[in-house]
Amino acid sequence: MTRPPDEWAVVSGSTHREPAGSGPGEGELGERGPGESRLGESYLGEGGPGEGRPVESRDAPRRVVLASRNDAKLVELRRILAVAGLAVELVALPDGPDVPETGATFAENALIKARDAARVTGLPAVADDSGLAVDALGGMPGVLSARWSGLLPGAGRAERDAANNALVLAQLADVPEERRGAAFVCAAAVVTPDGAEQVVHGQMCGRLVRVPRGDGGFGYDPLFLPDGQNRTSAELSPAEKDAISHRGRAFGQLAGVLRELLAI
């Protein structure tokens, strides 16, 4: 079974507690899709980011901000948390400047993003840092997965995904089938405005195909063939993917953490 490098292969369900605000964070870039919630003045209150506090009715679902501007990820995580039966309204990070992901591990980067989102919005924040660990590349691209091709964040997401996929395929061009093992790894973090923090982990093992297949998902999904499947992640239905994916496993656990931290 594929295992990422030791600093990424963390036991699922472990916790990580550090002082809030100990590092910078970076939200992900993405275009606003139709019907997607955004944080605005009604969420932040008066006085600018971080000064006002969200006002929620007693019967409304608790608002939790996702530290990402990736609309595809927002839709995916709303779906995962709904299946888990969690009564929260997951909203996207408001527009604003990005701060760098400087962590050496997925867990560090997830905390960087969640801390920053909680600070800016005054809401409980969740974030993930996920990536592809390829055996033949020594566990890379790893935490560099989203920017493996070197394209700048100003490039469109579809353009960056295509460039990242093309580079990985080129790097594995001469690698035989038996050495094309890989794993998707996810660290999911929650940070509350009062500084409580927790991180959980999920992993999906498989191998990489030679030609992209499927139109679903995003990132490296068209290249990744999960163990026990004859379809890539991009060929699976959303429900099929959520049931086995690294992100589905991590956020399935995080739902329980949110219930405890938010008393819902």
Automatic annotation (TrEMBL):
<dbReference type="GO" id="GO:0035870">
    <property type="term" value="F:dITP diphosphatase activity"/>
</dbReference>
<keyword id="KW-0546">Nucleotide metabolism</keyword>
<keyword id="KW-0547">Nucleotide-binding</keyword>
<comment type="subunit">
    <text>Homodimer.</text>
</comment>
<dbReference type="GO" id="GO:0009117">
    <property type="term" value="P:nucleotide metabolic process"/>
</dbReference>
<protein>
    <recommendedName>
        <fullName>dITP/XTP pyrophosphatase</fullName>
        <ecNumber>3.6.1.66</ecNumber>
    </recommendedName>
</protein>
<keyword id="KW-0479">Metal-binding</keyword>
<dbReference type="GO" id="GO:0005829">
    <property type="term" value="C:cytosol"/>
</dbReference>
<feature type="active site" description="Proton acceptor">
    <location>
        <position position="129"/>
    </location>
</feature>
<dbReference type="GO" id="GO:0046872">
    <property type="term" value="F:metal ion binding"/>
</dbReference>
<feature type="binding site">
    <location>
        <begin position="246"/>
        <end position="247"/>
    </location>
    <ligand>
        <name>substrate</name>
    </ligand>
</feature>
<dbReference type="GO" id="GO:0036222">
    <property type="term" value="F:XTP diphosphatase activity"/>
</dbReference>
<feature type="binding site">
    <location>
        <position position="130"/>
    </location>
    <ligand>
        <name>substrate</name>
    </ligand>
</feature>
<keyword id="KW-0378">Hydrolase</keyword>
<dbReference type="InterPro" id="IPR020922">
    <property type="entry name" value="dITP/XTP_pyrophosphatase"/>
</dbReference>
<dbReference type="Pfam" id="PF01725">
    <property type="entry name" value="Ham1p_like"/>
</dbReference>
<dbReference type="GO" id="GO:0036220">
    <property type="term" value="F:ITP diphosphatase activity"/>
</dbReference>
<feature type="binding site">
    <location>
        <begin position="68"/>
        <end position="73"/>
    </location>
    <ligand>
        <name>substrate</name>
    </ligand>
</feature>
<feature type="region of interest" description="Disordered">
    <location>
        <begin position="1"/>
        <end position="59"/>
    </location>
</feature>
<dbReference type="InterPro" id="IPR029001">
    <property type="entry name" value="ITPase-like_fam"/>
</dbReference>
<dbReference type="GO" id="GO:0009146">
    <property type="term" value="P:purine nucleoside triphosphate catabolic process"/>
</dbReference>
<dbReference type="InterPro" id="IPR002637">
    <property type="entry name" value="RdgB/HAM1"/>
</dbReference>
<comment type="similarity">
    <text>Belongs to the HAM1 NTPase family.</text>
</comment>
<dbReference type="GO" id="GO:0017111">
    <property type="term" value="F:ribonucleoside triphosphate phosphatase activity"/>
</dbReference>
<keyword id="KW-0460">Magnesium</keyword>
<feature type="binding site">
    <location>
        <begin position="218"/>
        <end position="221"/>
    </location>
    <ligand>
        <name>substrate</name>
    </ligand>
</feature>
<feature type="compositionally biased region" description="Basic and acidic residues">
    <location>
        <begin position="29"/>
        <end position="39"/>
    </location>
</feature>
<comment type="function">
    <text>Pyrophosphatase that catalyzes the hydrolysis of nucleoside triphosphates to their monophosphate derivatives, with a high preference for the non-canonical purine nucleotides XTP (xanthosine triphosphate), dITP (deoxyinosine triphosphate) and ITP. Seems to function as a house-cleaning enzyme that removes non-canonical purine nucleotides from the nucleotide pool, thus preventing their incorporation into DNA/RNA and avoiding chromosomal lesions.</text>
</comment>
<dbReference type="GO" id="GO:0000166">
    <property type="term" value="F:nucleotide binding"/>
</dbReference>
<feature type="binding site">
    <location>
        <position position="129"/>
    </location>
    <ligand>
        <name>Mg(2+)</name>
    </ligand>
</feature>
<feature type="binding site">
    <location>
        <position position="241"/>
    </location>
    <ligand>
        <name>substrate</name>
    </ligand>
</feature>
